Amino acid sequence: MKTKAVVLRGPKDIGLVEREIRLGPEDVLVKTYMAGICGTDKNFYLGQLPKMNGPGYALDDPLINFPYDIGHEGGGTVEEVGSKVRRFKPGDFVMSFNVNGTMADYFTAHEDDVEPAPAGLSKEFACLGEPIACAMFSGLHSNVNLGDTAVTFGVGFAGQIISQVMKHKGANKLIAVDVIDQKLAIAKQLGADYIINAHRENAVQRILDITQGRGADVVVEAAGVAETINASIECVKHNGTLVFYSWVTQDININISRLHHDSLHVINTGLVHHSIDERRVWTPWALRPIMQHTINIDPLVNRRFTIDQAVEAFRTDVEDPESVKVIIVP
User: Fold this and answer.
1) pLDDT at 164
2) Inter-CA distances, 141 with 71, 87, 211, Å
3) CA 200 to chain centre
4) C-alpha distances in angstroms, 128 versus 94, 141, 239, 271?
5) What are phi and psi of 321, to 5 degrees?
6) Which residue from 156, 215, 220, 261 has the least number of CB within 10 angstroms?
7) Which of 156, 177, 210, 187 is nearest to 326 (CA)?
8) By three-state DSSP, how is residue 48 classified?
9) Which residue would you say has higher pLDDT here, 41 or 52?
10) 112-144 confidence digits (pLDDT tens)
């Protein structure tokens, strides 16, 4: 069958195409309910493509090639299953966890690359299950303890969720750092004790002042730029915890000496990059506080477009500083 789909033809070149999709024996066919634009999609749209050196990759092997079926956040209702599929049946609502091309009326996925939406989770939040679960997993594994001072650099969609989790885990002082006043206002509304606009003041010095020069117990980097990564390294305490959430797609220089000299605990909290079996265990646990209404997601989904408005949706995500999560509805 054919489906209308969003394609990235090159940097800043979004288009709509009619794409042929085929159902393999281990695949499910999903009618899309909603898809979200991830920070990774934004990087790819801007032409910031990572080189994937390391085991399994040739030297400087690109992760993607144009044209690219963009979009990996999303979900919807299973319409049909392949002959070997055992985990799902038509009518099930599923969340994408390792699928490209979710910005479409329909998409197909191997049954291992979608997760069942937990009972009680709204369809909208289920379609954002991957980014929500990833942020929740990061906050829950951030090493925050009762009484700690915790900092989040970058309070976009993930940073707002991580910040709330750290506050609920017992952070006595929660500090949110960003350059957009609207996002900082949301962070304050959702529990931040201090907000810092890094365009107007020295964030590192302010954090050191708040902590009487000691530094923060836990610092989460969720902005994804060299400046915030280095600022995170500067303001975490001796033996403190540095949490890397962002996927930085370009090479940068960092003060790696401090990671060694001050024996920093460095955590990479990417849930989606765990094994399939681990993801199946951790995802329901990470989403449980959402269904318990402990974490507030509603103020974060603040820009909506139809699939026919995909060009405007991507432009808004890049150019509108107050957008937190942009979604596309078929």
Assistant:
1) 98
2) 26, 29, 22
3) 26
4) 11, 20, 34, 14
5) -65, -20
6) 261
7) 156
8) coil
9) 41
10) 999 999 999 999 999 999 999 999 999 999 999
For the chain, the distance separating the N- and C-terminal CA atoms, rounded to the nearest angstrom, is 17
pTM: 0.96
The 10 Å Cβ neighbour count of residue 179 is 17
Per residue in 273-315, pLDDT (tens digit) is: 888 999 999 999 999 999 999 999 999 999 999 999 999 999 9
Q: Which residues have C-beta within 8 Å of that of residue 266, sequence separation ≥ 6? A: 241, 242, 244, 259
| 150/100 Cα distance (integer angstroms) | 34
State yes or no: cis peptide before 90, omega within 30 of 0. no
C-alpha span between 164 and 216 (Å, rounded): 17
- 41-50, 58-67, 74-83, 154-163: segment of lowest average pLDDT: 58-67
Secondary structure class of 211 (helix, strand, coil): coil
Judge whether 310 and 103 are in contact, CB under 8 Å: yes
Task: Provide the 8-state DSSP code for 129.
Answer: H
The answer to whether 133 touches 264, Cβ cutoff 8 Å, is: no
What's the half-sphere exposure (Cβ side, CA atoms, 13 Å) at 22? Answer: 2
> How many residues does this entry show for the chain?
330
Q: Strand (E) positions, 37-132?
A: 73-81, 93-96, 106-110, 114-116
- Tell me how many degrees the CA angle 37-41-47 measures, rounded to the nearest 5: 145
| CA-CA-CA-CA torsion sign (28, 77, 304, 40) | negative
CA dist., res. 215 & res. 219, Å (int): 9
And the tokens for 51?
Answer: 């080189």
- Cα–Cα separations (whole angstroms), residue 80 to 2, 28, 70: 14, 6, 22
**Which residue type, as a one-letter code, is found at position 320?**
D
Q: Which of 79, 77, 109, 308 is nearest to 328 (CA)?
A: 308
